[in-house]
Write a structure and sequence with these properties.
Elements lengths: L5 H6 L4 E2 L3 H9 L7 E2 H11 L4 E2 L1 H20 L11 E2 L14 H10 L3
Parallel strand pairs: 1-3, 2-4
């Protein structure tokens, strides 16, 4: 979709892709063990894949939050293979998915367990 209105001032002219939740989840799952990525890096990569100027930051953030919470629910239900949400951080290194029930402590433990 074309970038229009007030969004042009912030993001510039071009096109924006609005992804499906499964695409954001797949990008989060693709981060290798022992590595970190930012939500901005995921958005940039997914925008390039769709030949768009940018990926909608609002929906990407919401979908990352959904993926993280679904992963925590799956873990609580005993599933071993979950989306490694702790590998996706904000540009400043903070928890990207905000208010995950596990919080920053378990995120730090998970990262330390992977050597990050």
């Amino acid at each position: 979709m074309p970038i229009s209105g007030g969004m042009i001032r912030r993001w510039g002219a071009g096109t924006m892709v609005v992804l499906a939740p499964i695409e954001v989840d797949a990008a989060m799952r693709a981060v290798p063990k022992g590595r970190l990525t930012t939500l901005d890096q995921i958005r940039a990569r997914l925008a390039r894949q769709d030949k768009a100027t940018l990926c909608c930051p609002l929906t990407a953030g919401i979908f990352a939050w959904i993926a993280a919470h679904a992963a925590e629910e799956a873990s609580a239900a005993g599933q071993k293979r979950i989306t490694p949400w702790w590998r996706t951080v904000k540009s400043a290194g903070a928890v990207a998915v905000g208010r995950v029930r596990a919080g920053a402590g378990p995120m730090s433990q998970a990262c330390a367990g992977e050597g990050v």
